[in-house]
Design brief:
Radius of gyration of chain A: 17 Å
Largest sheet of chain A: 5 strands, mixed
Oligomer: heterodimer
Number of strands of chain A: 5
CATH architecture of the largest domain in chain A: Roll
CATH topology of the largest domain in chain A: Ubiquitin-like (UB roll)
CATH superfamily of the largest domain in chain B: Aldehyde oxidase/xanthine dehydrogenase, molybdopterin binding domain
Structural class of chain B: alpha+beta
CATH class of the largest domain in chain A: Alpha Beta
Largest interface: A-B, 63 and 75 residues
Distance between the termini of chain A: 42 Å
Distance between the termini of chain B: 69 Å
Number of domains of chain A: 2
Strand content of chain A: 15-25%
Strand order of the largest sheet of chain A: 2-1-5-3-4
Shape of chain B: globular
CATH superfamily of the largest domain in chain A: Beta-grasp domain
Structural class of chain A: alpha+beta
CATH class of the largest domain in chain B: Alpha Beta
Number of helices of chain B: 19
Number of strands of chain B: 30
Helix content of chain A: 25-40%
Helix content of chain B: 25-40%
Chain lengths: ~180, ~775
């Protein structure tokens, strides 16, 4: 595979825009960044930290591809200003696994084949984690309702329902 | 890792998890969307605001004042690097940027380049374009004989022999008229016991991959590399080389994973534009469309289908006439192929002796239309399967019995004259009926919520003749790498093709590495489209793996091992090269036999290497007070040949059917004077969790495609075929009204129910 990111690709803001220094936890690590007032969280993660798991698709907070957890609450990164994460703890899909050890939610998505193109998958994984934190043993209605803000154009929805249930049982086993 | 010693059982037919699964759940899978290059500029497209007009002055003065703008490119710059800047797979009709005219709202007119995308976006809004507006035509039927002509002259690309007769034809919007005749339909219609004629329409919708269109080009002036989210890297290379007047080997096209494609990311989308821009500024250029601009790029054909049948007293269809108008929008894209390749299946999977088809590809002043998961088939099935139920009901015949009586079975000729083989239409239909317990009593509900059920079945020919080439590389440690141009856009081709290599070389599929499209490295493949890859690339990969296996056997003999000696592969290399060195390279190439249809009659003795079948059954509730429908059960059954990877096959069927559910119930591009008015996911509703049927069952029939690799054939589209008419048929079953236009909105159902009860209703 010869496809590689050859440069970190810092976005060069050439207009005169006031910037602010922010400090936050990013996947458990204390970091700081210079952010412009108009920058959203996705731009911050992609341009300054090379994290591409959260990605902008609809640009209106309707599809969930840009889902990021801020202080354990899901936000739409495409609508969330970067400067808002000052002083918070931010988790992206890249922070879900512990080294090479996948999170039970990630394992469950693989084992049930709960994705196709994979573009929406990071958003679903983070929403599922939040769902299971709130409802450790959700039923179908709870799953559908909770995840209804995330879209999958490949429509792997039935598989995702199975993945959520499998993840719930994996987490149950781990905690018992 | 050791082909001659390890014997894992059955690599084909096993639900191997996707090879890229870990990359996708950790956010590390590669998409062009994420890619950046040193010194890269971002492009923002300035788009036409009129549907049809002569392009006059383009005023850049204010836009150029925005700090950070690197350059603004218009037609004058483009023609300096590409003197004849018109592209397209069927017609060379689409300009890189508008030259003399604009032909739809949203057509690219200029591009602002800046390092910061926000700067480019702001400046793009300050570009002022003057147009001399011309009358526009939007409706496909009107376009057929409208005085408004979208293109003065037809410019077929020369790629397809059956388009050659259109060269230089003037003053028409008909880009292709495909005709087929079989038997003596006029006589059969004259002698018919019953005549039925209906007209059905479908709406313009779009693909909405969640990774929108995105391409990057970089060049040193002598060679060009294009990183693009494309389903057709080989075509991109050919077409960019043609536009630049370069040999193919100076153009390199690289494609990582796609965040969905569905037929949208085919042929040229942004690639020609970024290539020209990179040559103009001699810096890498990326254009990444926001969601809104996908609505201005490629869509699915709206269509009008007039279908007429002669039916005998006992319910046999004796003749059928099909007339289809495909709304191709302002540029042909692959529309003329849709008109022909789908057109010849317009009578449906039925055994009809007398057939007449006219299928017209039309230019209009709307965003261009092309392939979308079915290549025109879902539009046709919508009509012919709605028509089937209307006939059955009128004659008092059970809809399942009517289909059984008329179904096209193996050994009988299809409308083209090609004798059908390995097409499980009967098995799919029977399985749907069994799963729906069609013969059991059915609870029809009580007012105001009524229940109904419907079935529908469609079929599709493979797009032929097309070529795939593959290379299998066995390294000195015995590990295998597959080089092939099939693009994994979510359908799981990496995994399925690795399974084919693994089956031939007797190694675990998980150990095969698949190199993604890079035209400097991966050999030619026509494209990832039309459910062709498993069959065509599957063959090429199988041949390549067999070639490698034969070479390994020859190597074993060369180093003095007796046949069947079962030495590890690494041992063969060690014996020959005295160290871990060398390769064995297997090559495979495949193109199926094919007979082009006769220009006048559409007849061919071999129109396709295989047939795909998809059948759907639906049970639903209709709330007669609101018009809302609720799908209780959806059953999809397909003939996919042998499943290479059963779990991925099921996911493909399910996903296709749910996608088609969106095209059936909620999705519609709304237009005002050619301007899309709902170009966002806020106003254009794709299916989500709350739209799922309460129960969804997906199955394949037991099947073996005799000429397929390991008995396999395509699957990606089959789930879409029957969904729309099965729903309309179930609605009529529930409340006795017939919806003939998509989408089936609550409003449409409510108005139809009210009209059926009280005569008319004020809208």
């Amino acid at each position: 595979m010869q496809f590689a990111l050859r440069e970190a690709g810092r976005s060069r803001i050439e207009m005169h825009i006031r910037k602010k220094t922010i400090h936050f936890q990013l996947n458990g690590e204390l970091v700081s960044a210079e952010v412009a007032s108009h920058q959203n969280l996705i731009e911050l993660l992609q341009n300054q930290f090379d994290l591409f798991g959260a990605r902008e698709s609809c640009g209106q907070g309707l599809c969930g591809c840009c889902t990021v957890l801020v202080d354990d609450r899901s936000v739409s990164g495409c609508l969330y200003l970067a400067s808002f994460v000052d002083g918070t703890s931010v988790q992206t899909v890249e922070g879900l696994a512990d080294g090479q050890k996948l999170d039970p939610v990630q394992e469950a998505f693989i084992e049930t084949g709960a994705f196709q193109c994979g573009f929406c998958t990071p958003g679903f994984l983070l929403m599922t984690k939040q769902l299971l934190d709130a409802h450790p043993d959700p039923n179908d209605d709870q799953i559908c309702h909770y995840l209804s803000g995330n879209l999958c154009r490949c429509a792997s929805y039935p598989e995702i329902i199975r993945a959520v249930k499998l993840a719930a049982s994996k987490r149950e086993k781990l905690s018992s | 890792m050791m082909p001659t010693t390890v014997a894992p059982s059955g690599q084909v037919g096993r639900s191997v998890p996707r090879l890229e699964a870990v990359a996708k759940v950790t956010g590390r899978a590669e998409y062009v969307h994420h890619m950046r290059l040193p010194r890269m500029l971002m492009g923002k497209i300035v788009r036409s605001t009129v549907a049809h007009g002569r392009l006059k002055n383009i005023d850049l003065v204010e836009a150029l004042k925005v700090p950070g703008v690197h350059r603004i490119v218009t037609r004058d710059d483009i023609v300096k690097v590409v003197p004849h800047p018109y592209y397209g797979p069927a017609f060379h009709d689409q300009p890189i940027l508008a030259i003399d005219k604009v032909r739809y709202v949203g057509e690219p007119v200029a591009v602002v380049l800046a390092s910061d995308p926000h700067v480019a976006e702001q400046a793009a809004q300050l570009v002022v374009v003057d147009y001399e507006e011309l009358p526009a035509v939007f409706d496909e039927v009107e376009a057929a004989d409208s005085l408004v002509v979208v293109h003065d002259e037809l410019k077929p690309a020369g790629t397809f022999p059956d388009l050659k007769h259109l060269h230089g034809v003037r003053d028409t919007n008909i880009a292709l008229d495909f005709r087929l005749s079989r038997g003596n339909p006029d006589k059969a219609f004259a002698e018919a016991d019953h005549l039925f004629e209906h007209t059905f329409r479908t709406q313009q919708v779009l693909h909405v991959p969640l990774e929108p269109y995105v391409s990057i080009a970089e060049t040193n002036g002598l060679s060009m590399t294009i990183h693009t989210a494309s389903q057709s890297p080989s075509f991109v290379r050919l077409e960019i080389a043609r536009l630049l007047g370069w040999p193919e080997n100076r153009v390199r096209v690289q494609v990582p994973f796609l965040g969905g494609g569905f037929g949208g990311k085919l042929y040229i989308k942004l690639e020609a534009l970024v290539a020209a821009l990179a040559l103009i500024v001699m810096r890498p250029v990326k254009i990444a469309l926001p969601m809104e601009e996908q609505f201005y790029t490629l869509t699915k054909h709206a269509s009008t289908f007039r279908i007429k049948s002669a039916v005998s007293k006992d319910g046999r269809v004796t003749a059928r006439e099909c007339e289809i108008w495909w709304n191709g929008g302002a540029y042909a894209d692959i529309g003329p192929r849709v008109s022909q390749k789908s057109g010849f299946t317009a009578p449906g999977p039925y055994d009809i002796d007398n057939v007449k088809i006219a299928s017209y590809a039309l230019y209009t002043n709307l965003p261009p239309a092309g392939a979308l998961r079915g290549f025109g088939i879902p539009q046709l099935v919508w009509a012919y399967e709605s028509h089937s139920d209307l006939i059955a009901r009128a004659l008092g015949i059970d809809p399942l019995a009517f289909r059984r009586k008329n179904l096209l079975r193996n050994g009988r000729p299809q409308a083209t004259g090609t004798v059908v083989q390995d097409m499980g239409a009967d098995a799919c239909l029977e399985r749907v009926a069994a799963l729906m317990q069609w013969d059991s009593p059915f609870d029809r509900g009580a007012s105001p919520v009524r229940r109904g059920r419907g079935i529908a079945i469609g079929f599709k020919a493979s797009i032929s003749p097309t070529t795939s080439v593959a290379v299998v590389n066995v390294s000195a440690d015995g590990s295998c790498t597959l080089y092939c141009g099939t693009v994994d856009m979510g359908q799981g081709s990496d995994t399925a093709l690795a399974q084919i290599v693994a089956e031939v070389l007797n190694i675990p599929a998980e150990t095969v590495r698949v190199v993604h499209s890079d035209t400097d490295v991966t050999p030619y493949d026509m494209a990832t489209l039309g459910s062709r890859s498993t069959f065509h690339m599957g063959h090429a990969v199988k041949f390549a793996a067999e070639d490698a296996r034969q070479k390994l056997e020859a190597l074993a003999a060369e180093v003095g091992l007796p046949p069947g000696s079962n030495q590890p592969t690494r041992e063969l290399f060690l014996r020959k090269y005295k160290m871990q060195a060398g390769n064995v390279i297997g090559m495979g190439s495949f193109i199926p036999p094919y007979t082009s249809p006769d220009h006048y009659t559409g007849q061919s003795d071999n129109i396709t290497p295989f047939w795909m079948v998809g059948a759907t059954g639906v049970e639903l509730e209709v709330d007669t007070e609101t018009g809302h429908i609720r799908i209780l059960k959806m059953i999809n059954v397909a003939d996919v040949g042998r499943s290479i990877n059963p779990r991925i096959v099921e996911t493909q069927l399910s996903g296709a059917a749910i996608m088609q559910l969106g095209f059936t119930t909620t999705e519609k591009m709304e237009f005002e004077a050619g301007q899309v008015t709902n170009a966002s996911l806020a106003d254009y509703k794709i299916p989500g969790f709350l739209d799922l049927p309460a129960t969804i069952i997906n199955e394949v029939i037991d099947s073996h495609q005799h000429n397929g690799p390991f008995g396999a054939k395509g699957v990606g589209e089959s789930g879409t075929f029957g969904v729309s008419p099965a729903i309309a048929n179930a609605i009529e079953d529930a409340v006795g009204v017939r919806i003939t236009s998509l989408p089936i909105t609550p409003e449409a159902v409510y108005l139809a129910v009210r009209a059926s009860r009280s005569g008319t209703i004020e809208n």
